[in-house]
Automatic annotation (TrEMBL), chain A:
<dbReference type="InterPro" id="IPR036869">
    <property type="entry name" value="J_dom_sf"/>
</dbReference>
<protein>
    <recommendedName>
        <fullName>DnaJ homolog subfamily B member 11</fullName>
    </recommendedName>
</protein>
<dbReference type="GO" id="GO:0051787">
    <property type="term" value="F:misfolded protein binding"/>
</dbReference>
<dbReference type="InterPro" id="IPR002939">
    <property type="entry name" value="DnaJ_C"/>
</dbReference>
<dbReference type="InterPro" id="IPR001623">
    <property type="entry name" value="DnaJ_domain"/>
</dbReference>
<dbReference type="GO" id="GO:0051082">
    <property type="term" value="F:unfolded protein binding"/>
</dbReference>
<comment type="function">
    <text>As a co-chaperone for HSPA5 it is required for proper folding, trafficking or degradation of proteins. Binds directly to both unfolded proteins that are substrates for ERAD and nascent unfolded peptide chains, but dissociates from the HSPA5-unfolded protein complex before folding is completed. May help recruiting HSPA5 and other chaperones to the substrate. Stimulates HSPA5 ATPase activity. It is necessary for maturation and correct trafficking of PKD1.</text>
</comment>
<keyword id="KW-0732">Signal</keyword>
<feature type="domain" description="J">
    <location>
        <begin position="15"/>
        <end position="80"/>
    </location>
</feature>
From TrEMBL, chain B:
<dbReference type="InterPro" id="IPR036300">
    <property type="entry name" value="MIR_dom_sf"/>
</dbReference>
<keyword id="KW-0677">Repeat</keyword>
<feature type="domain" description="MIR">
    <location>
        <begin position="94"/>
        <end position="149"/>
    </location>
</feature>
<dbReference type="GO" id="GO:0005783">
    <property type="term" value="C:endoplasmic reticulum"/>
</dbReference>
<dbReference type="InterPro" id="IPR016093">
    <property type="entry name" value="MIR_motif"/>
</dbReference>
<dbReference type="GO" id="GO:0005576">
    <property type="term" value="C:extracellular region"/>
</dbReference>
<keyword id="KW-0732">Signal</keyword>
<feature type="domain" description="MIR">
    <location>
        <begin position="150"/>
        <end position="204"/>
    </location>
</feature>
<feature type="domain" description="MIR">
    <location>
        <begin position="32"/>
        <end position="86"/>
    </location>
</feature>
Length: 348, 219
């Protein structure tokens, strides 16, 4: 006799943490990130062969609704699902569309492939500035979208206006063709402002100019569909690190003494962790140190990281040397005179 | 707690903001009622009921730069402007704009900044207001100060925009253009603060402040 396998999706007392795949101490950001990733995977439109897809998707929505709300999460942690004081508000559609827009569930094919005859409202593009810290660790940006929506109004209006050719007979065998504006009658609409919250994810490793579209959140079209709202990522310059692909470049100035005898130091990385650097040999000006795995996470696979490349330059002492110090240095360093003359520019 | 739902406002009047404006898990600020750095907005002149607008049409006189007008309709994406910091002093994304703060107002579609200079406006002989620059970068005459009574620029309150370089107020007095922008109103700068220079934020995408990304400070 087999014991029934209790799936987190099918019991009445659901494990919301397990459904989202997060730990009990997950931050709100972890929860949003997990929801966004799973929502795309579990959407019923994407799983048309799975009879349980609707249930799993509904469970996902319920899990997010509870765990993303401070009050509800406290109640759930203490008393379980049965202990939640109120029923579930808000349809899962609302939650889903706050991450993807109104028509975000039309998978498998662009909106453009839909009926081309339906007119579309304008798109809106918002340049979203993000810091390198956010590119490294990821983040969520909440925005409030206030937009005009076409609502029914009393009366009729003219719509689908077009030019048509009319033929009139002037006499036997004589005809005249004229152009006329012809309109249909449609129910009247008026524009009303409505408001909703959207969640934009700054994914780890995101690159400049990448876009996050929210379908249907653009400008309305009285006779058709609304356009889209697109967030275009603009990565800001950083005072310490320069990005090249997944690699980070930085410069460190050391003293002449450190360059000759060695040194230990720490570089504070984008998320606060410290990168330890140690040298016990001579460090030449322009020398580069390669720290693998200390670059940015790769957008397509965040388990792969680029490198941190550190270039050293040397600061010479500010004071001049007296004759005794000069003698001391000559005998310490034991480096003969070099004085090599050559063309260093070579056309540059 | 946060409800992710639709809230309907039947009038152009103060919008009913999302009901549960509480705090989220963690230290999450709520700036739902303010215009914040980085937000995209449409600005309505409250006296003449037109929205600040620009397009790829140049003035036929004055500076010959891209024209800025006031339009009646509410569904044109050419009426979106992004609120940004002064040149070389970016504002922090999501933070509410203070009353008195100097900002740039960048036209979304063309990337040009709201701008004014000592040229005459074509219809009323006030000071010309144009859209200037490329990809959000122009010059110091792109800077405007937000004037309001409170601490910060509130979304449902009217504010004035004072041009920092020439001390004029962004205004509409009702003059209308003919073809090819029939019905659009002239937008210009005028010296006096009066009923014609009040503006209100309307439709838009209002950015909220984010939490700082995760820190892993070693002990």
């Amino acid at each position: 006799m087999k014991l029934p396998i209790i799936s987190p999706f099918l019991t009445c007392r659901r494990d919301f943490y397990q459904i989202l795949g997060v730990t009990k101490s997950a931050s709100i950001r972890d929860i949003k990130k997990a929801y966004r990733k799973l929502a795309l995977q579990l959407h019923p439109d994407r799983n048309q062969d799975d009879p349980k897809a609707q249930d799993k998707f509904a469970d996902l929505g319920a899990a997010y609704e509870v765990l993303s709300d401070e009050e509800k999460r406290k109640q759930y942690d203490a008393y379980g699902e049965d202990g939640l004081k109120e029923g579930h508000h808000g349809s899962h559609n609302d939650i889903f569309s706050s991450f993807f827009g109104d028509f975000g569930f039309m998978f498998g094919g662009n909106r453009q492939q839909q009926d081309r005859n339906i007119p579309r409202g304008n798109d809106i593009i918002l340049d979203l500035e993000v810091t390198l810290e956010e590119v490294y660790s990821g983040n969520f940006v909440e925005v409030v979208r206030n937009k005009p929506i076409a609502r029914e109004a009393p009366g009729k209006r003219k719509c689908n206006c077009r030019q048509e050719m009319r033929t009139t007979q002037l006499g036997p065998g004589r005809f005249q063709m004229t152009q006329e504006m012809v309109c249909d009658e449609c129910p009247n609409v008026k524009l009303v402002n409505e408001e909703r919250t959207l969640e934009v994810e700054i994914e780890q490793g995101v690159r400049d100019e990448m876009e996050y579209p929210f379908i249907g959140e653009g400008e309305p079209h009285i006779d058709g569909e609304p356009g889209d709202l697109r967030f275009r990522i603009k990565v800001l310059k950083h005072p310490v690190f320069e990005r090249r692909g997944d690699d980070l470049y930085t410069n460190v100035t050391i003293s002449l003494v450190e360059a000759l005898v060695g040194f230990k130091m720490e570089i504070v990385h984008l998320d606060g962790h410290k990168v330890h650097i140690e040298r016990d040999k001579v460090t030449k000006p322009g020398a580069r140190m390669w720290k693998k795995g200390e670059g940015l996470p790769n957008f397509d696979n965040i388990n792969i990281r680029g490198s941190l490349i550190i270039t050293f330059d040397v600061e010479f002492p500010q004071t001049q040397l007296d004759e005794q110090q000069k003698e001391g240095i000559r005998s310490l360093l034991k480096q003969g005179s070099v004085q090599k003359v050559y063309n260093g520019l070579q056309g540059y | 707690s946060k409800q992710l739902g639709l809230r309907v406002a039947e009038h152009i009047e103060p919008l009913i903001v999302l009901m549960n404006v509480g705090t989220d898990a963690g230290k999450h600020n709520s700036e739902l009622s303010y215009v914040t750095c980085g937000s995209l907005v449409k600005l309505l002149n409250t006296r003449h009921n037109v929205r600040l607008h620009s397009h790829d049409v140049k003035y036929g006189s004055g500076s010959g730069q891209q024209s800025v007008t006031g339009v009646e309709n509410a569904d044109d994406s050419n009426s979106y402007w992004q609120i940004r910091g002064k040149p070389n002093r970016p504002c922090k994304r999501g933070v509410a704009i203070k009353c008195g703060e100097a900002i740039r107002i960048t036209h979304m579609k063309t990337g040009r900044n709201l701008h004014s200079h000592r040229f005459n406006s074509p219809l009323s002989n006030n000071q010309e207001v144009s859209a200037f620059g490329e990809s959000g970068e122009g010059d110091d005459l792109d800077v405007w100060a937000v004037q309001c009574d409170n601490d910060h620029w509130e979304r449902d309150e009217a504010v004035r925009f004072k041009h920092v370089g020439t001390d004029v107020y962004l205004s509409v007095t009702g003059e209308q253009y003919g073809h090819p922008i029939r019905g659009q109103r002239e937008v210009h700068g005028m010296k006096s603060a009066n009923q014609n220079n009040w503006w209100r934020s309307m439709e838009g995408v209002f950015i909220q402040p984010s939490q700082e990304p995760l820190r892993h400070d070693e002990l």
